[in-house]
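Supplementary Note 2. Why include the ligand at all?

Several targets in our set were suspected to adopt different conformations when bound, so apo predictions alone were not considered sufficient. For every target with a known small-molecule partner we therefore ran a joint prediction. The input for uridine-5'-diphosphate-xylopyranose is given below.
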Amino acid sequence: MRLSVIGCGYLGAVHAASMAKLGHEVVGIDIDQNRIDTLSAGQAPFYEPGLPEVLNEALASGRLRFSTDMASARDADVHFLCVGTPQKAGEYAADLTYVDSAIDALIPYLGEGALVVGKSTVPVGTAARLDIAIREAQPSAMLAWNPEFLREGFAVKDTLHPDRLVYGLPVGYAHTIAKAMLDEVYAATIKDGTPVVQTDFVTAELVKVAANSFLATKISFINAMAELCEITGGDVTQLADAIGHDKRIGRRFLNAGVGFGGGCLPKDIRAFMARAAELGASEPLSFLREVDAINERRRHRMVELTIEECGGSIRGKRIAVLGAAFKPDSDDVRNSPALDIAAALQAGGATVIVTDPQALDNAARVQPTLTYAKPIYEAVLNADAVLLLTEWSEYRELDPDSLAQLVRNRCILDGRNVLDPAVWRAAGWSYRALGRASANGALSLATV
Ligand code: UDX
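The joint prediction is reproduced in token form.
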């Protein structure tokens, strides 16, 4: 099929390359000339494992090209809308400027019977509004809503082998045609046995925000348990293992620590709350306010714990922060807990040196006043405390004895609960983590 992919950010760039890999003829369109030039040269504009390979293979096949000119979408049968919907400045609501301008720009080029497929995460009700605009301009054109669930770091795999496909389909005659066109786009994936959920626009829009709200809730739930473990002297990692064995609960997304960040979970739960409030339905989502608050509290707690470990003040202390990206295998620093904590420590008077295998350029753009060091040894040299805030595999595998040679003070704070406390303590380190007892043992509830 001939496809256009409008918006070549994290979602669109991966989608365009992956669809070309599946055999479609794809044009990726973006208003950012630099991004288009980078992608056309076979380079990924961000760090995403596997993307450069798929991109180059697709470009070499001749089935993939990129352009800033919306007119190049003219011949496509299916147009994927993959533009961003960031949080509005100073508000919780999603900013739909890019969605609206992309649709306005696309409408003049919609051919007979073209299908527009929304993939961006949007407030419920957006698809119905866009559907009217599209059909008014080109009566034979159709809209479908097909949310995307890809995770950064696994984006190519998640696109080619998703857990499920969700089709939000129009009503009437267009329903059958839109479904058939989507089935053709995803034929290879469907052949692999991927389940397809067919539904309406509203449900498809809600599925995406519901999924992200559930994941955020799961993380904040375990982080709330971590808060209780800190008060009672329990161990949140053992608690997560124990409840995770219950198949109804499951162990995934029960990793306690400094909480969730990134370009999706935080802004999506906030936009969901804002949209619900507009619809007069704040109450059913009031729990999300707590999910957000627990998540924010974990960042503050990490700062408190660092101050505690530094003897009550971080003024003049040298603190090494391992990790700047919001999660490993990504160079994305949007709403990164690690950077937020690093900035708070600096504001408290510490000298903070941040290291990350991939995200330092992005981090320096967002937090230009922090100090950055690429090699780990440079970041930890003479440190009074080392904070592990993004669980890159190289930090999980750090050797406590070698690290001890470099630091001023053997003090490690594990913000992701990925190190073995026994190993670090045996090597003479003071090991602290969120939701785990300190070495002096658990608080004895019998004495409270
Ligand atoms: C998320 C959703 O998983 C994905 O389906 C959706 O399409 C986009 O949003 P992503 O933002 O790439 O994907 O990252 P994800 O792996 O979900 O992690 C989100 C955040 O939660 C990260 O900051 C991660 O460190 C944190 N996290 C995750 C935890 O703190 N604990 C966990 O147990 C899992």
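The chain has a mean pLDDT of 96. The chain has two domains: 2-199, 212-433. Comparable summaries for the other entries are listed in the accompanying table.
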